[in-house]
Amino acid sequence: MRIAIIGGHGKVALRLSPLLREAGHEVDAIIRDAEQADEVAGTGALPVVADVERLDTDALTDLLAGHDVVVWSAGAGGGDPQRTYAVDRDAAIRSMDAATRAGVDRYVMVSYLGAGPDHGLAQDDPFYAYADAKAAADEHLRGSALDWVILGPGGLTLDPPTGRIEVVLPGQEVGGGQVGRDDVARVVAAVIGRGDLGGRTVEFIAGEVPVDEALDAVAGTPLGDA
């Protein structure tokens, strides 16, 4: 498959690209800064310089044409609420619309554990803009015609990979559960290789269940419960 990773220089994306290349996929890593190209190329991905914050839907459609899968792993990085909305909400939504126009089969969104309109944060909370933007983007994806999967990892760490996770069920309290970026990348790679997870939101933290086994359990649940 030909896969486009939006946010190709992110810490998850840099771990994801080698996994996808090892699986035989063609990977285009979309980056904003040309100075990141050498590091991205070192993962086996093809660096593609394009600022998705500034591209309109037509330009994004051209960018994504010919791909089988789009992975959104980009983010404004917090700090400036205006830019957070511009990237994490507006650009993400344009990329979904563009993927639909371009005939992309699947869209995988890397979100976060607990994302949604009921995040409960006050508007003066520094995290509010990000939470609000991600909630809007995720909901737009759920309403799209794409074969989508939303991944909601817990707090991201640099712990070594284990290949094991715990899927968080709706309403389950996890109390600040975390997961390593390497294992997040493994989950993304596993999702891309499966056709039985469409229309599901998969929230997870570090755990003891092998990734494929955990995803098997998710795939076996009715869509309304996933």
Structure description:
There is one protein chain. The protein is built from seven helices and eleven strands. The longest helix is centred in the middle third of the chain and has 22 residues, at 81-102. The chain has a single domain (2-225), classed as Rossmann fold (3-Layer(aba) Sandwich), CATH 3.40.50.720. The chain is globular and about 40 Å long. The strands form two sheets. Strands 3-2-1-4-5-6-10-8-11 form a nine-stranded mixed beta sheet, with helices on both faces. It has a two-stranded parallel sheet with strand order 7-9. β2, α2 (37-41) and β3 form a beta-alpha-beta unit. The protein is α/β, with parallel strands linked by helices and 226 residues long. The model has no long low-confidence stretch (mean pLDDT 95).
